[in-house]
Amino acid sequence: MSEVSGDTVRVGILGLGSIGRTHAAALAHLAAGGVDVRVTAASGGTPEALRTSGWPDAAHVPAGELLGRELDVVVVATPSGQHAEHAVAALEAGADVVVEKPLATTTPDATRVLSVARERGRRVFPMAQRRLEAQHVAIRRLLDDGALGTLVLGEVLVPWVRDAAYYDAAPWRREMPAGGSLMNQGLHSVDLLSWFLGPLASVTAQTAVLGDGGPAEDTAVVTVRSAAGALGIVATSTATPPGDAARLTLRTDRGVIELAHTDVVRWEIDGVDRPSASSDVAAGSSDPAAIGIAGHVEAWRDVLEAHATGREARVRALDGWRTVALIDAAYRSAATGRLVDVPAAPDGA
């Protein structure tokens, strides 16, 4: 077995399904490029999946044994409904945690993850890799500088498709709230809207089962109001063949920007040039396996640097919490037919 130096970041992966293998492959890519990181153990899936993901020398062990090992970072890539439970267990075992989206599936559970991390002096890194894509970073910088004016309206559309076989392959995908189109497939786009609009104040929502996703919602429409006053619209579905690229539109008092996945397809802001920055990240509109590893490689590069230096990560634990709080509020609105306030950030976050 290969040696692990004292400076090597030792990583364990909880959950070696499709997204767990994506994390393993992203880390193998970074290690091959000279980054001092090593997956030393993983649970779930199969030993063969661990080998083909780039880590033939890593141990394939039960989850309880993995958390008993000396690890610097634990990846939580189990079914979404278990993320909070497993993140807390890893934090209590003394590791920092990288949590695949979502951070949790309810606001109280997300709050508990942040609270335990603070109590234990550990760090939580939510996986929100789309925030790190070059075109989004460039737009956010221009917004922060005031060059784009004041946001008036944000629009997200995620018209994707998933067939019955996709849901049957992992029964949790049919469960609420973990398997809903907002919490599962649409979360990254919702997260981007949350990031651009800033802290949100309230939501209204309607959900439905119109395709193969039931009993979890597979179609949702949400309206949001930001604390700063801007409004937003979110529509997500996995019942809309053939499945198109997710779209994000930002309308300010100076013009409009529209993106189809990573491509800026409309830029009408007087006096401001369209950014040349763009990311080469595949879309998962009709095939979740199509996303590749590029986004996770970039996210892990930032996580490992933040872990090593102690600096704040580009995606904070609070960012993951805010996205969960927004979606949780939307589900409560859909259930009650009422406007629901989005809670303020927890103390100490």
Automatic annotation (TrEMBL):
Residue span, Gfo/Idh/MocA-like oxidoreductase N-terminal domain: 9-125
Task: Name the domain of life.
Answer: Bacteria
What's one GO MF term for it?
nucleotide binding
Q: Where is the GFO/IDH/MocA-like oxidoreductase domain?
A: 137-258
Q: Which UniProt keywords apply?
A: NAD
Quote the InterPro entries the UniProt record gives: Gfo/Idh/MocA-like_OxRdtase_N, Gfo/Idh/MocA_Oxidoreductase, GFO_IDH_MocA-like_dom, NAD(P)-bd_dom_sf
Looking up Gene3D superfamilies in the UniProt record yields: Dihydrodipicolinate Reductase, domain 2 (3.30.360.10), NAD(P)-binding Rossmann-like Domain (3.40.50.720)
Q: Write down the Pfam families for this protein, in alphabetical order.
A: GFO_IDH_MocA, GFO_IDH_MocA_C3
PANTHER family in the cross-refs? D-GLUCOSIDE 3-DEHYDROGENASE, UDP-N-ACETYL-2-AMINO-2-DEOXY-D-GLUCURONATE OXIDASE
* Protein name per its UniProtKB record: Oxidoreductase domain protein
Q: Whose protein is this, by species?
A: Beutenbergia cavernae (strain ATCC BAA-8 / DSM 12333 / CCUG 43141 / JCM 11478 / NBRC 16432 / NCIMB 13614 / HKI 0122)
Lineage, top ranks: Bacteria, Bacillati, Actinomycetota, Actinomycetes, Micrococcales
